[in-house]
Amino acid sequence: MPHPWLEPLSFRDGRALPCRILPGPMEGVTEGSFVQVLGAAHLIRCWFTPFIRISNGVPRRSRLRPHIQPYLDTGVPVIAQIMGTRTELLAEAAARLHELGATCVDLNCACPSPEVLSSRSGGFLLQNPQWIHDTIAAMKRACGPRAVSVKIRVGFASPDELPAITEAIRNARPDLVTCHFRTVREMYSPVSNGLARLSRLRELLPDLPLFGSGDLFTIQDALQMHQICHVDGIAPARGLMRNPALLREIEAAIGGEPFQASLDESAKLAFLHEIGRVSGKSPTHQGFVLRLAKAMFGPDSPQFHALLDALKQPTPPPPGTTCAPTNPPISVTP
Q1: Residue 11 belongs to domain with CATH number
Q2: Which of 38, 186, 266, 319 has its CA 20 to 30 A from that of 310?
């Protein structure tokens, strides 16, 4: 039998995600050149977009389309994430995103950034489980049989908040729940019992598809989350910055299509060069390349400091290097 993470996740309208190993959404990272280069290298089987803010009105389709079209253009299914505080606007925006081609629309109740919290959205809303229930229910009414999901953390200030949050979600019955095992207040600080928290959530949500997130940097991290937490899938985020091939490597490790080893140092450098080429040479884009390099190699690494120098006088990557895997593209049916 194939590993369950390699099986499609089918939704009520007949559409599906091709597997259950997703790229976690990261604002300022999983967008633009990062999407283009990972898509061209066939390292992604579906996309989970960073949040689209829905504030004082529902954006027209012409305004929403640029938010998801780059992901659709890679030819794989797309989960479009939205964030806001007004239930009726979020529900209508979800329906419009489905019309534009999203496979699923996700409600962000997880973002811990101070700016988001000051607007009383994102992870702030974990303090109001009834609002979460009502908003998921409204999105489902607006979207009909099309898929609606929610992304959460285990609580706002404490994991003890989890039972109330999960009761609201269980009653609303979204098509998918993704959970990062930290609280909002913990941001990205180390926690010693993240997998125990996720295991507790599994017990509280036994009959809804549950994807886990948090500290998924290696194949072993993913296998451990599966063995301990019994989640139905995973959504690594920061791990993808360290290793752009991580999702494909996890697939191969659990019995999927063979994938040829990790990206070596030269391939990672070529990947960064391609990101820079696609992005352009503005200080903002160069800063993004450096941010990725710091995640891949570490801030004290010779590679990172060499790239700092190289950005002052850009040079082509070494002859023969490539960021694309040697195996053929994965065939998927959106």
Answers
A1: 3.20.20.70
A2: 38
